[in-house]
Write a sequence for this structure.
C-alpha cells in the first residue's frame, strides 16, 4: 500500500498532537490539573526525594484509597448478607418441599443423578 508524502506528514502531525494532549485520566478536573502540574519535589538529594514521594503516597492512600476501600467493604458485606439470606430461603423451601412430598423429592434426586452421571461420562 503506497502512501503519499502528505498522508505521512498528516499522520506524523496527528501523533505529535496526541502526544501533547492531556492524558485521559485527567478527566478535565481543574483541581487535579493543578496538583499534577505542581513540581514533584523541591529536593535535590535522592534520599530526600524518596522520603518526600513516600509522604505523598501515604497522604494519597489516606485521602483517597482508604475511604474507597471502606465503602467497597461495606457494599461487599451488604451483598454477602443478601446472598446468605437468599441461600437460607432456598434451603428452607427445599426442606419444606422434601418434607411435604418425599417421593417426588426422591424422584427429582434420582433424575438429577442420572443426568449428571450421563453428562460426566462424556
Amino acid at each position: 500500500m503506497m502512501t503519499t508524502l502528505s498522508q505521512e506528514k498528516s499522520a506524523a502531525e496527528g501523533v505529535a498532537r496526541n502526544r501533547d494532549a492531556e492524558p485521559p485520566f485527567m478527566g478535565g478536573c481543574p483541581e487535579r490539573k493543578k496538583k499534577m502540574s505542581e513540581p514533584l519535589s523541591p529536593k535535590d538529594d535522592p534520599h530526600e526525594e524518596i522520603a518526600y514521594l513516600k509522604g505523598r503516597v501515604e497522604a494519597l492512600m489516606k485521602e483517597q484509597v482508604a475511604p474507597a476501600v471502606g465503602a467497597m467493604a461495606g457494599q461487599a458485606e451488604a451483598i454477602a448478607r443478601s446472598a446468605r439470606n437468599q441461600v437460607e430461603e432456598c434451603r428452607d423451601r427445599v426442606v419444606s418441599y422434601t418434607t411435604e412430598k418425599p417421593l417426588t423429592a426422591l424422584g427429582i434426586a434420582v433424575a438429577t443423578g442420572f443426568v449428571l452421571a450421563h453428562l460426566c461420562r462424556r
Remarks:
- Residues 23-28 have pLDDT under 50 and may be disordered.
- The radius of gyration is 31 Å.
- The longest helix spans residues 46-100.
- Residues 48-122 form one domain.
